[in-house]
Design goal:
The chain is an alpha+beta fold and 211 residues long. The chain contains twelve helices and six strands. It has one domain (3-203). Helix content is 50%, strand content 7%. It has a four-stranded antiparallel beta sheet. A two-stranded antiparallel sheet has the order 1-6. The protein is globular and about 45 Å long.
Length: 211
């Protein structure tokens, strides 16, 4: 499957919204709590932290709601793949990102997990349990965009994760649940069972990916 075909599949999904005028230069006045900054110099380029340098190369995305979900989506392997096809990410590229908004209950699951990550994530010394949570979030994003495909290959995790989040006692409880169970096993099989669709995304194969 070529990169162009895969990108067309992502772009063709229903319920997409464009951010439009909500993307600003990071130096533009009007920043609010919950705004998301794009800094191309970071390994996880989207964050809530206003960049202190290279501001002219950064952008600010104003989000009135679902900022936790959007931040998770922007830093996902799917959006990394999407933006990775550009030599230089511009404001227009950010505006054109295909944003899928699931139902509120599903957004709530991601936002609760994203809050765990926000509180515990340390880039210089990441906790193993936080890394696992990030992988679960990333897989949920893939399932939102390709629900039928995940079900066809037997790797859907949304129902189980939603149940676990609703009944968990916090990050440590979730990590104990997902460190050695079906959710973890399914995530480990994504690239193997989906070599044409999910593997290029997960491995960041941006150009002329054929198998």
């Amino acid at each position: 499957m070529s990169t162009s075909v895969l990108l067309d599949q992502i772009k063709s999904k229903k319920n997409m919204t464009l951010l439009g005028s909500e993307v600003h230069n990071a130096m533009t006045a009007g920043a609010r709590d919950g705004d998301i900054y794009f800094n191309p110099l970071k390994s996880r380029p989207f964050s809530y932290l206003e960049p202190e340098e290279y501001l002219r190369r950064c952008y600010r995305i104003s989000s009135q709601e679902h900022s936790g979900y959007l931040l998770s989506l922007f830093n996902s392997s799917l959006m990394t793949f999407w933006l990775g096809t550009r030599e230089k990410v511009t404001k227009e590229d950010l505006v054109a990102m295909p944003i899928y908004l699931p139902v509120d209950e599903e957004i709530g699951v991601v936002e609760k997990l994203a809050e765990y990550v926000r509180v515990t994530h340390c880039p210089l010394s990441p906790r193993l349990e936080t890394t696992r949570i990030m992988r679960v979030i990333d897989t949920l994003i893939l399932e939102f965009y390709f629900p039928d495909h995940l079900k066809q290959i037997g790797l859907s995790i949304l129902s189980q994760v939603s149940h676990d989040v609703a009944t968990s006692g916090g990050l440590d409880s979730l990590d104990a649940t997902w460190s050695d169970n079906e959710v973890r096993d399914k995530i480990s099989l994504l690239a193997i069972r989906s070599p044409l669709l999910l593997r290029p995304i997960l491995e960041g194969k941006y150009t002329d990916y054929n198998i």
